[in-house]
Design brief:
alpha/beta, single chain, iron transport, 4-stranded antiparallel beta sheet, 12 strands, binds adenosine-5'-triphosphate, 34% helix, membrane
């Protein structure tokens, strides 16, 4: 059964195991449904398994167990089968290929669609994606001529233009200055609400995760260490246990949650 486009989609992960060769990184991981309409941030220390989880959701590492998007079981589908529903933006910046930013965005759109789409409409959508990210001025520049941050924005344009039901973003702001970090986070949050899609985003900036995500999932050693609203998940106790830092969690004058780290322990 195809996902119902009228209702916010639900992604249910049940007893998911995934890894590399014989090495299991996720071992029977289950999560209450991730719902569309808001951002879910996936945080946790280095090597916790965050990328592995996103890659398993995108069908890019072998996985056992169940990943259900509404009525559709994703495990067992081919990479192309996953791509009908899920778009994954990897942490590594895209290869230096000889396409312009516009051509790469257009090509990402065309490769994601089952049905045909008229050329003017495809062009309009590609341009709209670049405009939303504030990089329309880069449309005719070659991908191989861009700075690291510009390449990250171009890569993000290729992900959002596909209009997936599930958007998985692995540290999409790691190369960006503070203006572009906030711009991207605002856009991602708007897209989740406007299109009622599922967005799962891996972030290392805990305060940014708290500000833009509706739900925070903390991963540690391939298992869930905390899961809830930012206030529920981000606590001094969690930071001490999972990140091994002594930290205070306080609201700033505008009510945004701040993490003040005093020392590593
Ligand atoms: N291609 C691979 N082959 C073998 N092991 C891998 C591979 N990719 C990752 N791993 C291992 O899987 C574990 C989890 O890695 P993963 O990249 O999922 O962590 P992460 O939470 O995303 O980390 P980081 O925050 O450092 O990016 C690590 O121990 C890592 O060494």
């Amino acid at each position: 059964m195809a996902p119902n486009p009228l209702a916010a989609p639900r992604l249910v992960i049940d007893a998911l195991s995934a890894g590399y060769g014989k090495r299991r990184i996720l071992d029977g991981l289950s999560l209450p449904a991730i719902e569309g309409g808001g951002v879910t941030a996936l945080i946790g220390p280095n090597a916790a398994g965050k990328t592995t989880l996103l890659r398993a959701l995108a069908g890019l590492v072998p996985a056992k167990g169940s990943i259900r998007l509404d009525g559709t079981e994703l495990t067992g589908l081919s990479v192309a089968g996953h791509a009908r529903f899920v778009t994954y933006m990897p942490q590594a910046l895209p290869q230096r290929v000889a396409l312009t930013v516009f051509e790469a965005t257009l090509s990402a759109l065309m490769s994601a669609r089952d049905e045909t789409i008229s050329t003017p409409e495809a062009h309009a959508r590609a341009l709209a994606a670049l405009e939303r990210l504030g990089i329309a001025d880069l449309a005719l520049r070659g991908l191989d001529e861009l700075s690291g941050g510009q390449r990250q924005l171009a890569s993000l344009a290729q992900s959002i233009v596909r209009e997936p039901t599930v958007l998985l973003l692995d540290e999409p702001t790691s190369a960006l200055d503070i203006h572009h970090q906030l711009r991207v986070m605002q856009l991602v949050e708007e897209l989740a609400r406007e299109r009622a899609i599922i967005v799962v985003i891996v972030l290392h900036d805990i305060a940014q995760a708290a500000r833009y995500a509706r739900r925070i999932v903390v991963l540690e050693n391939g298992a869930i260490a905390a899961d809830g609203t930012p206030h529920e998940a981000i606590t001094p106790q969690m930071l001490a246990r999972v990140y091994r830092v002594e930290a205070r969690v306080e609201a700033c004058s505008r009510g945004f949650l701040q993490v003040i780290v005093d020392r590593a322990v």
